[in-house]
Amino acid sequence: MMRALSLVLLLLTxxxxxxxxxxPEEQLSxxxxxxxxxxxxxxxxxxxxxxxxIEDSDAELAVDLRKEVRQKLEAxxxxxxxxxxxxxxxxxxxxxxxxVSPETYLxxxxxxxxxxxxxxxxxxxxxxxxxxxxxxGADNQKDDAAPIPADDGLAFSPRIGxxxxxxxxxxxxxxxxxxxxxxxxxKPLDDRAEERAAALAKETQQASAFQAQFIEAQAQAAKxxxxxxxQMRYALAAAQLNDYPTEIGALRRALTxxxxxxxxxxxxxxxxxxxxxxxxxxxxxxxxxxxxxxxxEEPRALFMKGLAAYQDxxxxxxxxxxxxxxxxxxPNTPWxxxxxxxxxxxxxxxxxxxxxxxxxxxEEVLTEMAEADEETQAEMILSMVASLEAxxxxxxxxxxxxxxxxxxxxxxxxxxxxxRALTGxxxxxxxxxxxxxELLEEMLGRGQSREMITAAEASLARLKALNPDAxxxxxxxxxxARLQGEIDEARRFWQALSVQLPDDTPFKAQLDAQIxxxxx
Amino acid sequence: MIAIAEIGHFALIMAFVASLCQAGWxxxxxxxxxxxxxxxxxxxxxxxVFMSFAALLHGFVTSDFSIALVAQHxxxxxxxxxxxxxxxxxxxxxLLLWIVILVLFGGIFALTSSPLPGRFAxxxxxxxxxxxxxxxxxxxxxxxxxxxLADAPLEGRGLNPVLQDxxxxxxxxxxxxxxxxxxxxxxxxxxxxxxxRIDQAxxxxxxxxxxxxxxxxxxxxxxxxxxxxxxLGWGGWWFWDPVENASLMPWLAATAxxxxxxxxEKRGQLKSWTILLAxxxxxxxxxxxxxxxxxxxxxxxxxxxxxxxxxxxxxxxxAAIGIPLTLFAWRGPQLASANDASLKSRDVALVMNxxxxxxxxxxxxxxxxxxxxxxxxxNQRITVGPPYFDATFNPVMAFALIGMVIGPVLAWRRGAxxxxxxxxxxxxxxxxxxxxxxxxxxxxxxxxxIAGLGLLGWLTLxxxxxxxxxxxxxxxxxxxxxxxxxVLPVWGxxxxxxxxxxxxxxxxxxxxxxxxxxxRAQTGDVIALSDRAxxxxxxxxxxxxxxxxxxxxxxLEDLDGQPMGELAxxxxxxxxxxxxTTEAAIRPRFSGDDYAVLGDGDDTIGYSLRxxxxxxxxxxxxxxxxxALGGLCAIxxxxxxxxxxxxxx
Amino acid sequence: MRNRLTYIIPLGAFLLFALIAxxxxxxxxxxxxxTDQLPSVLIGKTAPSLPATALSDELAISLEELAGTPxxxxxxxxxxxxxxxxxxxxxxxxxxxxxxxxxxxxxKEDTAKFLTDFGNPYRxxxxxxxxxxxxxxxxxxxxxxxxxxxxxxxxxxHAGPIxxxxxxxxxxxxxxxxxx
Lengths: 520, 649, 180
Hints:
The complex is a heterotrimer. Chain A contains 23 helices and no strands. Chain A has helices spanning about 1-15, 30-40, 60-75, 80-90, 105-130, 160-180, 195-225, 230-240, 245-255, 260-275, 280-295, 300-310, 315-330, 335-350, 365-370, 375-395, 400-410, 415-430, 435-445, 450-465, 470-485, 485-500, 505-520. Chain B is α+β, with helices and mostly antiparallel strands. Chain B contains 19 helices and 10 strands. In chain B, the strands form 2 sheets. In chain B, strands 2, 3, 4, 5, 6 and 7 form a 6-stranded antiparallel sheet that branches. In chain B, strands 1-10-9-8 form a 4-stranded antiparallel sheet. In chain B, a hairpin with a 4-residue loop joins strand 8 (about 585) and strand 9. Chain B starts with a helix and ends with a helix. Chain C contains 6 helices and 6 strands. Chain C has helices spanning about 5-30, 80-85, 85-95, 110-120, 130-135, 165-175; strands at about 55, 70-75, 100-105, 125-130, 145-150, 155-160. Classes of the chains: A mainly alpha, B alpha+beta, C alpha/beta. At the A-B interface, helix 5, helix 6 and helix 7 of A face helix 1, helix 2, helix 6, helix 9 and helix 12 of B.
């Protein structure tokens, strides 16, 4: 997939400008040299074409190679030297006549070998057979094979024919019901005049509406250069007309006016990418990272981050980012279907199954449960939990799954299970602060075990990656250090935290007390 | 109301089930066998596939963009003829066309198979059914032309402008007629192996199929080459491209088959060899049609390839070729017949012809696949281009051309016809005269060119001498009626062989005496080229049906400034596809073509013009047409299909 | 009767052919057969020289100045969309290896605009106005990426844009061999 794609891209690059083989300007003024140039060109392969010589090709590279050949001719090189020099930079591949080398011995020798073998076989077959020169030779029609007996089998009865026809029809219906799409009606163009006219009218109408909106928004933005709203309207109107430079300009002003509003920043990144034919370019990526560093759940930025990963052909990352997006995006957002579609193509490209997007709560199951008696309830939950855990073992990136497991474990009151689920959820959503915090809190509330500390460490590392100065991180890092007996470490974290806290909060007082306690 | 496309889809599925039935029926006990039933199944499959193709055609003609294929490859503004040809201007549609021709041949066979022994006809139909069902499965499972769009777009995505061309509209159907026509020789051969017996009658049954397929293949290849000549715009006509090679290989094998079938029919010999050739010819057709679609080899001519589709194709190819060859390894030895011919006989000349053609096929096969093999074995990348084929294929084929004069003057079984010596004498004289003449006219020539000229003389005079002897046996007054009474197959051979000479004349004329000039010119300029001159009259902008053009008007003048004609090369811009194409202007004459191409430029810097004079080049295609005509002639004049030897023997 | 063996030859030859075709096709499908990659003749040899002109004085670091460390040379152009697409990957690489760009058949102002608009992961940018340097390097399309070892020898050439798979399967392993 990836190679196919990159090859297409490569070919696209090379096919940008059509030229028509040799142009007059390329030719050498000396007709003898020009003749030699032609001969040489016919022996050199245009590397990006299929078996075309550079003489026949209109690819950019062919033009350059023709020039190269002519420059060398003018420099006085002989034909062999020119071919050699090109062979030295491009390899044997550039020569349309494969050079004789150990790799091509077979290629060059085979025709001769075939002729030899054929000759030997031919001669042998005559020596062995002693042609009978005195034979009668009259019976040219003689046939030494027995004839094929004529038999016509069964007489064909219409009844059998009918049965077979019926059988064929039946099987075909079966297959058709699987392959066919009988519900889609034909849509010949002649029947769609109205539809086309309507679409055209709508398009024209929309275009003029967009134009009017743009003029209006432009005026507004000029009148109120410091109004964020006016700038945003202006950007939107420009975007509708695919006027990306204007859109970017307006968004930049809005961004300055709002002092770096993350949503606007994400929109700016999007506009920049649209200007680059949809590619999430480096400056846009930087913006996205800025947004997500502070607001890991900004949906537009998340969407773009996924798209960037997708464009890098890092489909797993794209999938997991978009999965995050599915979770944080409010239901029924316009992102939903688009992101789902993207996820499907990412899953296809990566060759991994599309992760299940579970509804937030299995309403039906819960209702059913509420109606059942206690014993059945517990059984149902247990079986649900077991199947969920099995699924998560296969697909540990399913965040919704982990969260459902967390809820189920809470209902069941299974502490070990809950910790397991929280650990999984935290690992599956490294960007989700809440998931980490939930795990850490839960862990602190209960004693300590080796696995718990390991899980906590991993979770802390993720929190640190999100923001090493965040208060929560410092708090829990200190806590963990204390649990592990690294008192100095714990003190350092908490002191760093304490400095950041406002003086009059009760929590600061508590913390300072803890720090003091540590010192003993 | 159900869409016509869905009816087509259903018909295609039904055709698949029917052919599967046809393929599998002989497996039931002999109690259930009926030749008529098999023929009915074949005819049913034919009718159903025709229906299906008609449905697709209807979709293209009415621009029904709810059919994904139409939406992808058609456009409402396209001229009707290209909407029609657009049906097979893509992978899915061309595959369906391929199947249409396959069932057409099967259907004709079903209708004319009554003289054949029943079991033989049934097995032939079963093999034909197996091939048909395999390709129908391929079409339905991986390349369905009836994929539907619930949300039909309002406009199609157009057809590659390079493909909007009459030559290309006709090229695939002709080529497929040739490729697929060979399927019957194949099915007859496999049936022969299954029955375990091949007799002279087999040769008579197979011959019309081989000859018609060969003729169609000749025309198909010639059309492709003609298209490349006038459409690609650099004046070449054969490039040794993998796709071209893929069509040349079955042609070479079929040429050998056409000759060896003759030996089976006349002499009851070479049977196992002929069976092998029949299998090989169709196998090479399959390889030719499908290997370029698998992504194994790539070519400028091919449809977009899809390697995963390729695996399916490869599976079919392995079954369709491997099973018959296994049968051949098992049953072939039973077919061998004692050779009683002397070294100097037409039989042996035909064996030589076969050996040469098969070696030539092997060379093309090797040259086409060697880079792939080397890449797999040692990760080395090399190119096998025209110089390799010139150095290996041409000399080998030269021997075949030499034999074309000698073979016809030898007698069957042993000995020569009386005029062997005089014919060879004339041929040698012809060779010498033309070589010397060429040297004198054209100056120093390469060894290849001299050999080519020699062959031309050898072939032409040798064959004329043979014809002359044919007529001289009779008093002058009877000669006219004698010509009329020559049986068609003899005429066929004559036309075919003369066609080869004509082809060679064209190839040599263009190869040795072509002149060419590339200039940047302003209107009003006069550009001299060999014994003529082009006057650049004007540059114009015109509007075509779905494109706009930039047209250069060039007046061709002789050395005295007398106008000889006008050429108008164009550049076309297709807005729907956002593509530009060049249209060469050609003034074809028997003496040679004037060929002009318009390149880049504008009014200030002038326009780039490439102008050629290509002596005798049309004779290349004229020769191919003669060859094809010869092939068709050779079908006629036979006794009607009667299994005489099988009834009497 | 001729030797039975003769009749098996066609089958044998075909099976060989089928085997080769299958291997090649399976290779194409799972990506081990890289039809778009021509092996470079430069592998193991000292890299050819860079063009004479740099985009600007700050971006004029030569191969000699970087001698002693591995270097990536990226042939790119402002008119090439895949070149834009691989910039993020190059930016990641630039954290570990200096990357030198050869702007192939490009104009200074276009290259400069390209780098301001889309980001600049390059330590140096050299202008190959007429493509002659490109031919010296044996390129057959843009983008192409060369990895040079500390001695200035070419160890790898990749044609086409770099995405994650190429990065992990081709580029990173090659850099790892150079100790990066």
